[in-house]
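Suppose you are handed a protein chain with no further information: no name, no annotation, nothing but its sequence. What can you learn? This example shows the usual starting point.
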Amino acid sequence: MNSTHIKTDKSDILYDAECIGQVDDAFFEPQAWAGKGLLLDSAPGRGTTVFVQNGDAVYALRHYRRGGLPARLLRDRYLWQGLERSRAWREWHLLATLQRLGLPVPRPVAARVTRRGIGYRADLVTERLDARPLAEWLGQKRLPGALLEAIGACVARFHDAGVYHADLNARNILLDEGGKAYLIDFDRGELRKPADGWRRANLGRLKRSLEKFRRTERNFAFDDEDWKAILRGYEGSV
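A reasonable first move is to predict its three-dimensional structure. Written in structure tokens, the prediction is:
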């Protein structure tokens, strides 16, 4: 990975020069990709994530947006505290570190931070994984216990490495057709000293997410026995 930082008239851009050539602000704009007929589709979630075709690769473009009450006023603007502390910069570098550790995450491609006054907006581009969210799988069919255990073991790998995921939910765990699990969306994630407290809290967040899907989605194939299977996989790897 060749981390390269450039400045444009509008923004600071960080990108992997081994992955892509020179980039500019248009690289982060869905409209620019749509104008070339290269905009594919989008994904649900708080932020706006779209998928684009770039040669043989497919990229996920995500514009950072706030959640909760702050979103009503600030939407996609964050307080400027320096480039290295911006959401996009931190997530890009965290993903690069996780890649070097051999953990199953998408490869970071590029990040952009656009400052205006005391605030900034940000964007992140990663390679799209050929996998689907756990929530989507469970909305279609019940997964075998061995696969649910593999999901628990995947989460344990990250926790063992000290990786805190700030929003571990059923949409941020992906599964491919071969049963390999990945984690995505590391906004506000960080490396921590492994500790039981935050590990349990992370697992609790995932359980609440699955329970919410079970309450709100018809035929969502998940119950208490499935959660026990995830825990078996997690605890078997700890």
